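Box 3.1 A note on notation
Throughout this textbook, protein chains are presented in two layers. The first layer is the amino acid sequence; the second is a token string describing backbone geometry. Keep the layers aligned when reading.
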Amino acid sequence: MRIFRNLKKSRQLQLTAQFPNLYDLACIEKFEDYHFLAVAVFDHWLTRGEYCEDRPSKDEDQIRFNLLMGEETELINFRFRGSGIRPYPLFREFTSDESKESYIQSRGYSSKNFRRLVLPDLGAVYFESWDYTNVFYLRDVKASIKIEEWARRVGVHCLE
């Protein structure tokens, strides 16, 4: 069974306009149009030793945050298509609630398997990252209020 279905062309164009420079953002090259916010299971940036010590026990906290996020707002996956200088985003919706939950609960242990999502209602781009820290890039800093509320509800922390 497929997890994703490509969005219609009109919605692709709408999301591309809503989230400019998405490829640059994914490459961590240019994000002046965005506000940075990280959500982590720890209350501070980790040292290498701290990451190695606590690794297995923190998956559940991050999954709870991701599940809450999926319940409270629309999540749209994206990947990049095309070759050359400027690949373009291809936005995909989940085929069912079960596929969304399965995707959210799976853990990417390599960077190529990390989740990438946009949250159109909040104008936010979400990247899963290392050390139980996930990164949001927000078009409007006011969206951080909702994300911070989700973090408090599940017991994770926001870092800037």
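Residues 59-72 form the longest helix (14 residues). Residues 37 and 136 are 5 Å apart (CA to CA).
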